[in-house]
Amino acid sequence: MPINLPLTQVSSQLDSRAISAVELLQACIDRTKAVDSRVGAFNSFDEAAALAQARASDERRAAGKTLGPLDGIPVGLKDIISVKDQPLTASSKMLANYISPYDATVTRKLREAGAVFWGRLNLDEFAMGSSTENSAMGPTNNPYDLARVAGGSSGGSAAAIAAGEVTAALGTDTGGSIRQPASFCNLVGLKPTYGLVSRYGVSAYASSLDQVGPIARTVEDAAIMLSAIAGHDPLDSTSILAEIPDYRAALHQKKGPWRLGVPKEYFGDGLDPEVAAAVQTAINFYKNQGCEIREVSLPHTEYGIAVYYIVATAECSSNMARFDGIRYGHRSTAATDAVDIYSKTRAEGFGEEVKRRIILGTYVLSSGYYDAYYLRAQKVRTLIRQDFIDAYKQVDAIIAPTSPTPAFLKGSHKTPLEAYLGDIYTIGVNMAGLPGLSMPCGFTQTGLPIGVQLIGQPFKEAELLSIAHAYDSAHDWAKHLPNL
Amino acid sequence: MAATSPNLDIEKLASLARIDLAPDEKEKFAAQLGDVLKYVDQLKRVDITGIEPTAHGFPISNVWAEDNVTPGFTADEALRNAPAQRDNMISVPKVVE
Known about the structure:
The structure holds two protein chains of two kinds.
Chain A: H1 7-15, H2 21-39, E1 42-44, H3 47-62, E2 74-78, H4 105-112, E3 116-121, E4 141-142, E5 145-149, H5 155-162, E6 168-172, H6 179-184, E7 188-191, E8 212-216, H7 219-229, H8 247-251, E9 259-263, H9 273-288, E10 292-296, H10 304-319, H11 338-349, H12 352-365, H13 370-391, E11 397-401, H14 416-420, H15 427-432, E12 436-443, E13 449-455, H16 461-472
Parallel strand pairs in A: 2-3, 2-6, 9-10, 9-11
Antiparallel strand pairs in A: 1-3, 4-5, 6-8, 7-8, 7-12, 11-13, 12-13
Helix pairs in contact in A: 2-3, 7-16, 10-12, 10-13
Chain B: H1 10-16, H2 23-40, H3 75-79, E1 85-86, E2 89-90
Antiparallel strand pairs in B: 1-2
EC number (chain A): 6.3.5.7
Enzyme class (chain A): ligase
Family (chain A): Belongs to the amidase family. GatA subfamily.
């Protein structure tokens, strides 16, 4: 079935006319209707709009005007990325009835590449969470074990691919929200360097950390997706002016053997032994390929979570101020005056985790505490970033676990702090603005996927993807499908 | 567990954040945020003498755009998501008596 194949193979089937884009989409529609009541990856879908896009793709192909490897591919978008005339809920009651009046830049770019949009995919409300349990739409379940989380916040994007409902997807990553769900669902997830991909039209959570990136079955699939979405955008002044290489072509220009750094701080207490063993096996693969494996130190790793939950909540409290019940989104009908309308609207519209983060962010920015918390956190952020810069004097990339554990049971985090601690290996990448990739590297004895993370140097995605491809193309984890 | 920070005035924060918290939310958040603040106190151990703050992974500043007219929304498009509207304007409760 094409629904379980990597994008590259589906694309070949479209090119050889073994299947049409409409048939392919119909397979995804049928699959979604058959499994999504159990998986919960989708917030909504628009069958008619998707079929129109698929028909247009088939017409282009018939006319010899195919737009490239994404033409006709069903791609799911996290429901925080704007698609003109489609809902954007951010999995929040606040935006239950919101319709995007414009395309995000990444949406426009995928549209121009011929992708067919299938589904608005679930997330933790406004991307705040690591399990997709904090969603007003209900949780997304892991296709490999429905009692467990799919990861988060891009849990819907990962689960939809793993369940065969879409071929590839976009997520966003502020502290690990692409890489961790990819690792929980046996997929490849790439958080690009901060500034490589435009954030225009993507609902903002923590603007200095947020980045859009692909989730897909293979590294080659992710490379194709990244080529389509990367590049400068005048509508996002933090996007970088640089030539974007063809990342897929770059995969085959082998420049190894590479020097890979193993950060000793990423292999301490709290790392699940099965995850540690699988990651070590991946490291041994590189060693056997002639790569130099060197222990490195990222001494400020232990402070990453504390810095993140100050910086991210501070930025969150500012960004969420736009949801005031005036211009768009939910408006409380119980309010009587102008201030009351803000307070009641926000009380009714936001879920618990969003409120908690806004309150914490308000605290760390408030008069008298700014220097003690926010400014201090920004300075420690400098030290975290410097750790990586120092490590890259010795190595080309860093290899480490993505998450300390495989997918955990739903409801197993009893306190917010306990949930936050799971982001320990992904958060530093966002602090330092680096590219980070998670790819499958094995399964636990009970059949849960395990991911290994590669952390690259700024804007060297081509090299990062090449390193990852060397491993990924020599293994067949993507063939291990869930039983749904 | 309920390590409520003495400085964490949840009433004031809710008011600053413009969120009308329910009584049970106030109690719960005060305790949970107290725990988080206790956790982030570890940052006080770090020597930050002479360290500059980082606001972005890759600082880019002063990006200017040409002051050109570009296509924008029509009034209908801009107002489509407004909770209440009248005469091509967003309608809000009375602000001034």
